[in-house]
């Protein structure tokens, strides 16, 4: 006997991973009357709640508030002190529940979802999962309907010589930091790297350097985005090195247990092959994500461990033609964003329970990836949805892009001096609909959902003309964009 319990009878759906995507598919299936078991080896709430979105935005918020106050004449004079870093970190700890999930578990139990603490692994038999329990035992679960993979991703550590040995920070160690390093090198200028670089600079870091291999920060967005964020970073003392890659890293060992962690040296190679050395207290790696699938038993279903799980538009894993295995959230690689994982979870749940609309047709039975909203919470903030101009042209669409200054409307002016940013629409000429939108500036996140609705709803420009923005709000940039187009 291997000590395996087989008390999984009566389970309709098994979900592996209790992050936002896993929680949502479990809760939606349970609400439809199905018996659901969710397996989690760490904390209910997942990466976003404890080591991602919530703590990172909490670290960013104090500096954001101070910067906003300093842009307002009269209020600026009241800003006389420095940030209370201890209070910031205490607030971070509060919002992540001191890294306990006591406050998150009731959301599952109130919906009748059974929480199984441990690591789940596919066995190769249909809808069967072996759980290696946290207490050392094992349990065999068999679902009558479906198994859903929602195990997310982890930080990628590039194969740079000496990097792994230097024990770099990743998103977890950075968002959970107990101190602000005096000097910091950030490898990666995407959303995570950019946000944390600015957070630590504003929290009191004396030297912050961002190393990005692409020609600009936030390289997947419109070109002006990276240029504007870089200008803002450099204005507040953050060094930005683009077209630059780390080629070697070295951190000498500490000779005594009580010795301060030695500084790390980072060799980087920039344009024209110029090599320089950066020295810092800490190095943060923000160079992408790796799917957490290496120990899920994917090989038992003929899929490759360690990779993203390829799915169809119903979120079913293509490796299982019988259709009982699903993957939602980061693990399927479609859009590594919490809100998109939750959206995919709702789609998958509706397919699993067989939900139909009032006309008897399958309801919301496929995942639409045309309009993926995304926000980078830097200052200036970057909010975008849909296609960039380049991506639209590469997709063969005949498009026209129009742009106006975000700070050019009265709503931006009353928020303070020095309003910056750009608002841009990508318009498909044949149908006269918006297929992409980007906004940079202060609090542009609040402009994003209107753009998402316009794209998803395929609202014509002629109809958008009648969506009147209130005065004085920053939303008046919509009026400026339509007028720039010629309406």
From TrEMBL:
<protein>
    <submittedName>
        <fullName>NAD(P)/FAD-dependent oxidoreductase</fullName>
    </submittedName>
</protein>
<dbReference type="InterPro" id="IPR001100">
    <property type="entry name" value="Pyr_nuc-diS_OxRdtase"/>
</dbReference>
<keyword id="KW-0285">Flavoprotein</keyword>
<feature type="domain" description="FAD/NAD(P)-binding">
    <location>
        <begin position="12"/>
        <end position="340"/>
    </location>
</feature>
<dbReference type="InterPro" id="IPR050151">
    <property type="entry name" value="Class-I_Pyr_Nuc-Dis_Oxidored"/>
</dbReference>
<feature type="domain" description="Pyridine nucleotide-disulphide oxidoreductase dimerisation">
    <location>
        <begin position="372"/>
        <end position="478"/>
    </location>
</feature>
<dbReference type="InterPro" id="IPR016156">
    <property type="entry name" value="FAD/NAD-linked_Rdtase_dimer_sf"/>
</dbReference>
<keyword id="KW-0520">NAD</keyword>
<dbReference type="InterPro" id="IPR036188">
    <property type="entry name" value="FAD/NAD-bd_sf"/>
</dbReference>
<dbReference type="InterPro" id="IPR023753">
    <property type="entry name" value="FAD/NAD-binding_dom"/>
</dbReference>
<dbReference type="Pfam" id="PF02852">
    <property type="entry name" value="Pyr_redox_dim"/>
</dbReference>
<comment type="similarity">
    <text>Belongs to the class-I pyridine nucleotide-disulfide oxidoreductase family.</text>
</comment>
<dbReference type="Pfam" id="PF07992">
    <property type="entry name" value="Pyr_redox_2"/>
</dbReference>
<keyword id="KW-0274">FAD</keyword>
<dbReference type="InterPro" id="IPR004099">
    <property type="entry name" value="Pyr_nucl-diS_OxRdtase_dimer"/>
</dbReference>
């Amino acid at each position: 006997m291997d000590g395996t319990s087989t008390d999984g009878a009566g389970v309709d759906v098994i979900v592996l991973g209790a992050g936002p995507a896993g929680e949502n598919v479990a809760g939606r299936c349970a609400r439809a009357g199905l018996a659901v078991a969710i397996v989690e080896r760490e904390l209910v709430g997942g990466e976003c709640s404890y080591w991602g979105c919530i703590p990172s935005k909490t670290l960013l918020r104090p500096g954001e508030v101070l910067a906003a106050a300093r842009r307002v004449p009269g209020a600026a004079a009241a800003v006389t002190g420095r940030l209370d870093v201890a209070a910031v970190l205490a607030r971070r700890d509060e919002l992540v529940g001191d890294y306990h999930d006591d406050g998150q578990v009731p959301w599952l139990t109130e919906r009748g979802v059974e929480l199984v603490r441990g690591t789940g692994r596919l066995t190769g038999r249909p809808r069967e999962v072996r759980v290696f329990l946290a207490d050392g035992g094992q349990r065999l679960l068999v679902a009558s309907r479906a198994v859903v993979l929602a195990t997310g991703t982890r930080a990628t550590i590039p194969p740079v010589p000496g990097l792994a040995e230097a024990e770099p920070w990743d998103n977890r160690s950075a968002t959970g930091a107990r101190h602000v390093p005096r000097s910091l090198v950030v490898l990666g200028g995407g959303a995570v790297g950019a946000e944390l670089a600015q957070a630590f600079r504003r929290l009191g870091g004396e030297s912050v350097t961002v190393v990005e291999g692409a020609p600009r920060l936030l390289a997947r967005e419109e070109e002006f985005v990276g240029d504007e964020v870089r200008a803002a970073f450099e204005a507040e003392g953050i060094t930005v090195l683009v077209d630059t890659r780390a080629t070697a890293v070295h951190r000498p060992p500490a000779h005594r247990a009580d010795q301060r962690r030695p500084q790390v040296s980072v060799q980087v190679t920039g344009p024209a092959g110029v090599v320089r050395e950066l020295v810092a207290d800490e190095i943060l790696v923000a160079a992408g994500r790796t799917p957490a699938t290496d120990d899920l038993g994917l090989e038992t279903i003929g899929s490759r461990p360690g990779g993203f799980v390829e799915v169809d538009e119903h979120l079913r894993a293509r490796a299982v033609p019988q259709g009982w295995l699903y993957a939602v959230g980061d693990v399927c690689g479609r859009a590594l964003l919490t809100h998109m994982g939750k959206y995919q979870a709702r789609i998958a749940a509706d397919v699993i329970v067989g939900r139909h609309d009032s006309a008897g047709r399958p309801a919301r039975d496929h995942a639409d990836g045309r309009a993926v909203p995304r926000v980078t919470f830097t200052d200036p903030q970057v909010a975008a949805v849909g296609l960039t101009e380049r991506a639209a042209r590469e997709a063969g669409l005949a498009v026209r892009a129009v742009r106006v200054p975000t700070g050019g409307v009265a709503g931006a002016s009353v928020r303070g001096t020095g309003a910056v940013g750009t608002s841009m629409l990508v318009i498909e000429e044949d149908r006269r609909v918006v297929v992409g939108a980007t906004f940079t500036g202060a609090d542009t996140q609040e402009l994003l959902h209107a753009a998402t609705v316009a794209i998803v709803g395929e609202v014509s420009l002629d109809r958008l003309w009648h969506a009147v923005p209130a005065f004085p709000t920053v939303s008046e940039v919509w009026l400026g964009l339509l007028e720039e187009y010629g309406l």
